[in-house]
Write a structure and sequence with these properties.
This protein has 491 residues and is an alpha/beta fold. The protein has three domains: 245 residues, no CATH class; 100 residues, no CATH class; 61 residues. It contains 19 helices and 13 strands. Strands 2-12-7-3-4-5-6 form a seven-stranded mixed sheet. A hairpin with a 5-residue loop joins strand 8 and strand 9. Helix 2 packs parallel to helix 5, helix 14 packs across helix 15 and helix 15 packs across helix 16.
Length: 491
């Protein structure tokens, strides 16, 4: 389990600076990526869901988490700090814990790995009628739900529970699956140099029998919370593939990354994977919109009270006018997360205006976005016009918003289905990509490697040129086929 220490607001500003960035261009360009829908409570979860928690949970005395040695807290804090160096869009460094939901013995249960080992607890005991919220689900919870085959995955996950629940009788009947700092450290180094490491990069290989399947059908005894989730889903996917008459590649669709993953990189993969729906259970639950309005009103009061600065008064009045207009146009049936995001889109250009003529990010923007981020409302949702699978097929979205031809759109969709990000899939669809286009896909990693000079000459340069050349060759052949098809159809 990864843990985050309590920080002051000033420290949080520094810690979150890479995830609360000002929007420099307010023209909303279309992009195919997810915005979250609202999930009301743990009782709305389904078997097969993956859950990732965004804040430090309170100690669960009944699960003895509070009695863990202090070194585990230190290890968790170090790991969370290191997540800040991983440049994976859609993942967030304050994502501190991961688990999954299963249906076992007729009960919906939460399965996860903590310092004491593997735990399985009924959802009704965590959150039930008339009870207060408890434990991890007090925090903002990110939910990733398979769009298809969720029931099949859930059935396979239940079969793996005995393996994860097995005990070591030589060590006081504790679970054999243990949280290990060394696994977290190894995962950090893997992800720094290999990004998410998509295991299957050929979208055409939908049907296969992988020679590494037996080796990957293992639940590691030494693990961390996110690796256990990855191990379990990889194992379940391989079981489904081997049982399928056509050997359909379930892993390529549902867990196409290395099992050595941190919560942030697991979250990044699930966010970009179009085979998962994305829901958020905010800490403030259904009151998240109202609480957001309260935070903005506090900033309005602060700005209006600063009578010595006319710009501050004007900014406060503009923010208040936006709030009033949003209330007038309020729709009770609108999803509360989407409603909050839409309000932030209207507010952010005004919040970003610095009333004192400084170039630094305004305090009002920091304060509002600090609250928004704690509820799963990220700045990355505001700078572009986002579209995802809930609106229609990815192929149709690519044709509509990117102007792709039928074959280009199909190719884009195929890459997105195996976990490529929007930027990576668009690179794969370029007619003449360059080294610079490839470099920008992982700018932090490539810059770090290039700093040595040797790394640039012997890894970045040849790899970038090779990738660009192979994409160029493939897409030129695709253009020739399209041109020939058009010529035939015109006859």
């Amino acid at each position: 389990m990864l843990r985050v220490s309590q920080n002051s607001t000033a420290m949080l500003k520094t810690q979150l600076s890479d995830e609360i960035q000002p929007l420099v261009d307010h023209r909303l360009l279309p992009k195919i990526d997810k915005t979250p829908l609202f999930c009301g409570s743990p009782t709305d979860l389904q078997a097969g869901d993956i859950v990732i928690f965004g804040m430090r949970p309170p100690a669960l005395q009944d699960e003895k988490i509070a009695k863990k040695p202090r070194r585990k807290d230190v290890a968790g804090n170090i790991t969370v700090f290191q997540q800040g160096f991983l440049n994976e869009k859609g993942g967030h460094k304050d994502s501190v814990h991961a688990g999954f939901i299963v249906m076992n013995e007729g009960q919906l249960m939460f399965a996860h790995l903590v310092g004491e080992g593997f735990l399985l607890k009924p959802i009704k005991d965590i959150y039930g009628p008339g009870e207060h919220e408890a434990g991890y689900f007090k925090s903002t919870t990110h939910v990733y739900r398979p769009r298809k085959n969720g029931d099949k995955l859930a059935a396979e996950l239940v079969k793996l529970l005995p393996v994860m629940q097995s005990v070591d009788h030589q060590k006081n009947n504790l679970s054999k699956v243990k949280w290990k700092f060394s696994v977290g450290l190894r995962s950090v180094f893997h992800r720094i140099f290999q990004s998410l490491r998509l295991m299957h990069r050929n979208p055409a290989a939908e049907n296969f029998v992988d020679k590494d399947v037996p080796k990957e059908r293992v639940i590691a005894n030494a693990s961390i919370c996110s690796k256990l989730v990855a191990d379990a889903y990889i194992h379940a996917c391989h079981n489904l593939t081997l049982a399928d008459a056509d050997n359909f590649n379930y892993r390529a669709r549902y867990m196409n990354i290395s099992s050595f993953t941190l919560p942030k990189t697991l979250q990044a993969y699930l966010y970009r994977n179009v085979n998962y729906e994305y829901l958020v259970m905010p800490n403030q639950r259904e009151e998240v919109y109202d609480k957001l309005v309260e935070v903005v009103k506090k900033e309005v009061s602060r700005l209006v009270a600063d009578g010595n600065i006319a710009n501050a008064n004007h900014k406060g009045e503009e923010l208040e006018a936006i709030l009033n207009a949003d209330r007038v146009n309020d729709s009770p049936d609108e999803d509360v997360m989407q409603k909050s995001i839409n309000l932030l889109k209207k507010l952010s250009p005004v919040l970003l205006r610095n009333t004192r003529g400084h170039k630094s990010t305004p305090t009002s923007y920091w304060n509002v976005m600090l609250f928004a981020k704690s509820q799963g409302l990220y700045a990355e949702y505001l700078g572009q016009d986002l579209h995802d699978r809930k609106e229609g097929k990815i192929t149709n979205l690519a044709k509509e918003h990117y102007g792709y031809s039928d074959k280009q759109a199909k190719q884009y969709s195929q890459f997105r289905r195996i976990g490529f990000s929007d930027e990576e899939a668009k690179f794969e669809c370029q007619a003449a990509p360059t080294l610079g286009d490839w470099f920008k896909l992982s700018p932090v990693r490539n810059t770090v490697i290039s700093c040595t000079g040797v790394g640039f000459l012997f890894w970045v340069l040849p790899r970038g040129l090779s990738c660009a050349a192979s994409v160029r060759k493939r897409n030129q052949e695709l253009l020739i086929v399209e041109r020939d098809d058009k010529a035939v159809n015109s006859l």
